[in-house]
């Protein structure tokens, strides 16, 4: 039996599966298929493989390995089962991968005869960046192309279907006891991931559902409580076992990101704000480190700032655990969404502006120290959503003022994510969709987005990574318009623009020399002063265009003393460690 798993990439409120992040769905699906049919030959393909094969392009040509597009058509022709995984609920900007839409993949797969299954969050539709609503058109299209649209857990459906198709129900959900085998068996599919082994970062699940939603309901726009009505915490030993399986295969980068709030793992329910469990988090991350001692990246994702603000003692212990066992550059994303209390109440948002401020302050106290990779150990991120019901002109002013206060008070936020609201079926917002303000407030949204990027992001970025900071192990990913773009591997890594072409898919230590609004300019070090281009030389601290020309006229230098006799001894301390001959 030949099975094709097509990864269209996923991005949802509690989980990321866009390269270099490998999401949970392909791994679980692979494990369920293997457990049900040991004789199955399973091929993992990406949407980029399909684009390359059927559109005559390589799609995204920045992967560590050449996509297997030469065999894609043959695999799909022979496959008796074709599983497509997709769903984009929190659209963002991606450096080297473009998630698929149902319309796109349906066009590719329609001619093939194998049984077609759609899984992951795609059954609710996929958001387009800047979009406001999901129409039923793409859902109807999915139903016309796919033989089965899975509304429950894809892995549960696949296991049942391969054992006895008559028993397979598209609405069935598995529990964590059933998942354990799927996750461990499915780990081996990571070997087919294009970024394996050096650049893949594996998304790890710890919890399903939203602890706050169980107490008082979820945020108006969020799909997580729609899909998972109850909160289920994954056993520590199961999480550790999956990490061990992936680590044994060669994975060295992990993001414990598949949960709505890492600070609420194993928490005690308590209405709006659950009581955190520091002992459980300590045991979890200590266990991960025990089976993955040479881990290179161990990061997390979401956190509810209300939990941190209301339980500071427990939360500080958890933050210290994340620093003790994790790696620097870690970011916890806070879902503020709006600083307007009226909007927060109407949309049942996670936290007030006051709680979010306190949570930012607490994490800065614990995690702002810079780690060996050049980044602070643990910082917050802020999520903002524009267009929510109840918004007025004052709402945007309040949110801007909140962010400005963080900046003025000397606090650090790793990134501010601004999205326009997307209305998904089944969410409370679906019933309030006539009150969504993205069209009415379009000019205001554009104005405040620009204002935040220029007046908040830029000075904040200069604070988080000042000129002269050295970021270690920046992976080069894309070359475009004379710049090579790269990132460290992590939860929310900064995009670094290198002002020259360098070989892709290699790690570089990069000296930060300038700042953009959401990205930075850096040059790989050490710099060969006898060979480097004048364009790069002028970025060196204290050099500039005139001195760069002077360096060119005096090259080659026999030693560093000759070099500093030209540029000035006063620059030796700044440049000694970043140049070579």
Summarize the structure.
Pfam families: Radical_SAM (PF04055). It contains 21 helices and 23 strands. The chain is α/β, with parallel strands linked by helices.
Describe the protein's architecture and organization.
The structure is a single chain. The protein is α/β, with parallel strands linked by helices. It folds into 3 domains: 176 residues, 3-Layer(aba) Sandwich (Rossmann fold); 265 residues, Alpha-Beta Horseshoe (pyruvate-formate lyase- activating enzyme); 108 residues, Nucleic acid-binding proteins (OB fold (Dihydrolipoamide Acetyltransferase, E2P)), CATH 2.40.50. It is built from 21 helices and 23 strands. Strands 1, 2, 4, 5, 6 and 7 form a 6-stranded mixed β-sheet that branches. Strands 17-18-19-21-20 form a 5-stranded mixed β-barrel. The chain has a 4-stranded parallel β-sheet with strand order 3-8-11-12. A hairpin with a 7-residue loop joins strand 18 and strand 19. Helix 1 crosses helix 7. It is globular. The N and C termini lie far apart (59 Å). InterPro entries: Elp3/MiaA/NifB-like_rSAM, rSAM, rSAM_horseshoe, rSAM_sf. One of its GO terms (molecular function) is iron-sulfur cluster binding.
